[in-house]
């Protein structure tokens, strides 16, 4: 955790800060609630209990009830049956929290797509945040919205995806799309119902030259 903290500190304030942060978050396993005290990886603490005051989550309520039950406070602590079901409750709370996060993300994506639907054809700055055989994902700088640049919209070439280096490369033209690469895109399609966005690269050859120059330094 301390090593990752140093990496984040070194990237802070630079062009790659957001990309580094996102990559580290994706590489980590999802957090979950459990009665087993395994500490906190991100904070590098050997022992950790998560709760907030005022109470915002059911997990917070469970911790508050436990503290009340251990003290000489009014008899409204944790019911005896819940203590035996802590592992089960932890799994349920973890699942519902992940569902809530997903719902929040999908709602945000749909509202952003609704806003962008009136801006079809406009150009935006962004950076590549993901690559796959079928295209590249670009996150816009101002809105944080992420859309797809389909490989079918790229210059005519034989495109290969390298999962190790996370790059998409044209075999003959030499154009390359890689994580963190700054790009300018044109908004082609926005679908508010699903939150989906389709982009097209603006002057992709220029972007390719930048990557090639940077790779040869």
TrEMBL record:
SMART domains: S1. GO terms for biological process: mRNA catabolic process. The keyword Nuclease applies. One of its GO terms (cellular component) is cytosol. Keywords: Exonuclease, Hydrolase, Nuclease. The keyword Ion transport does not apply. Residues 121-202 form the S1 motif domain. PROSITE patterns: RIBONUCLEASE_II, S1. Pfam families: RNB, S1. GO terms for molecular function: exonuclease activity; RNA binding; RNA nuclease activity. InterPro entries: NA-bd_OB-fold, RNase_II/R, RNase_II/R_CS, RNR_Ribonuclease, S1_domain. This is RNB domain-containing ribonuclease. It comes from Nguyenibacter vanlangensis.
């Amino acid at each position: 955790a301390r090593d990752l903290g140093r990496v984040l500190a070194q990237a802070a304030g630079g062009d790659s800060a957001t990309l580094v942060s996102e990559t580290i978050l994706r590489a980590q396993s999802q957090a979950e609630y459990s009665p087993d005290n395994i500490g906190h990886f991100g904070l590098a603490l050997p022992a950790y209990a998560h709760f907030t005051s005022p109470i915002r989550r059911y997990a917070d309520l469970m911790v508050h009830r436990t503290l009340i039950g251990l003290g000489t406070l009014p008899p409204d602590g944790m019911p005896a049956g819940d203590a035996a079901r802590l592992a089960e409750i932890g799994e349920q709370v973890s699942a519902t929290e992940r569902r809530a996060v997903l719902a929040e993300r999908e709602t945000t994506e749909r509202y952003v797509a609704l806003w962008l639907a009136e801006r079809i054809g406009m150009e935006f700055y962004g950076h590549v945040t993901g690559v796959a055989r079928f295209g590249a994902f670009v996150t816009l700088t101002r809105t944080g919205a992420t859309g797809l640049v389909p490989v079918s919209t790229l210059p005519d070439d034989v495109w290969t995806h390298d999962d190790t280096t996370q790059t998409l490369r044209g075999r003959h033209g030499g154009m390359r799309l890689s994580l963190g690469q700054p790009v300018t895109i044109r908004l082609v399609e926005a679908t508010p119902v699903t939150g989906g966005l389709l982009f097209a690269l603006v002057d992709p050859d220029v972007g390719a030259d930048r990557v090639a120059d940077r790779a040869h330094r």
